[in-house]
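Aim 2 progress update. The chain analyzed this quarter is reproduced below.
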Amino acid sequence: MYTGSATQRSLFSWKISNAGKLHALFMRNAKKEGVLPIHEIARTMHELCVYPSRAQVEDMVQCANYCSPREFDHITFSEFAVLATELQDAYKQCQIFPCSGAARRQRRRQKARAFARKLRRGYSSLQVFLGGSCNPTTWRRDVAIPFLKNFNITFYNPQVSQWRPELLELEDQAKEASEVLFFVIDNETRCVSSIIEAAYYAGYQRQLILVLKPCSAPGAMLCNEILSESECRELTHAQTSLRDLVERQCIPVFTDIEVALECTSKIILNSTRVQDLVLTDGAQLVRYPHLHVGKRLIALKEAFRSVDSSNSGCIDFNELCLAYRAVTNMQFNPQWLTDEQQEDGLFTFEQFCELWAECRQRIPNWSLVRYLFTVILDCVLRTIAHVFLCLLTVFGFHMEDSRKEKWGKDVYLGGVCISSNWKHQAITLLKKYGVTYYECLSSTLLRESAQENCRMLLYVIPADSRALFLMAEAAYFIGRRKNLVLCVKLLPHDVPIDESKLSSQAVRDYNRGRAYLSDIANREGVPVFDDITEAVHCVIRKVSSRPSHSLGSIATSCAI
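Predicted structure tokens:
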């Protein structure tokens, strides 16, 4: 359990230089109780030139809660010191080797797509597409259009008084031609199609400016209806998922339209990328969102528990040295402790964390040195092997390429966490054919890792759930051109969700989103089914054959 006051936890902070700096930063942003609220974690770490995503902050708090159970809304100083130090170490490694092979391939695809769009749009001078919430919102007329006119920036406004079907083609051409896609997701409409569309363009790696307005509280009016508690949770979850998807591309998310417009003008006038915005622009920066945070904190807790045999919450000096060696594989240097503390002192887990953070910053980073040596050695060996294979080919020997793709499990099941009757049917079929799968994962970063490392993704949009966040995820991975199979079921009229029936307007809104998602999938060659059995069999056929990154090959195979 959580023990110790703020003063006890910062026992070493004023005697140790590095921990003292972290403590001063922590206390400037902490509450009176000596804890850092979850909404202040990212802003506090910005002062250390560390820019975590929302999902990373969530994982930090989850790991802290695992180590010392408490309310899921804050971290203590000792936890902050460990988490900040861990992220700083990871940033150093990423800055030395900023691009993995996958990242380089992704960047080449992004450049190729941008060049193809440039060729298609020809001499079009359209700069900004104003997407997102439409009627009855007035943010385009009142704020965005006057601002863009003032900076002589060209734009396309899809909001018209009388919409006609022939406008669809014009909108698609405008989206394709625009340099920046400016999307506002507000709280006056459900924004179902806009959320799906923004997720798709984030995955497609377009230059996206996204403004998210928090959902209204239950009981507020939404589309001339009273917003229920269950729909409020669903819309909030969808916005959170959209933010996580956008931040995976290092794209900052805005809450203020005026600030977002200022950043748009900078991107257009200075020919920069949205990922190149800085804190002074008012952007909430995100860097290296793929990094997993909190592993070191959990390792410290497990080492502390292993030596605290009496479960008293305190360890002596000898036990402290043993726990430190278990975590770092190095001997603890007691130079920062007094003789009295070494002989008679007892140390809490919070103090153990502070000492680790201090030692981590003072001791040479041998793990980084080992990492550099491993990478350099790997490059040398790969070069030698490549030259050797080329020589064999010259002399008439042909070697088969034995390299294999590194995968996790076969299939990621999108939507199994929703209470729906399709889960048992799908899993039974997958087990029958020996197909491995990822089911429900609690951590956002774990889900992201599973989605990136599986061979295929199966997303089921059921007929008994709004499933807006699922549609956003599916659209994102369609934009990413991941191997994907969709099963989309329309909501029937008067369908009961969470013991309440949806209105006719709500059913139309969510079904319109389903239709839009299916349209995106068809354009990109993603197979779409309305029967779960057919969709699962399509997945089984694909994972049983040779892995392929081509969406067109999936659609062709599933059509046979």
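The longest strand covers residues 180-185. The longest helix spans residues 366-394. These observations will guide the mutagenesis experiments scheduled for the next reporting period.
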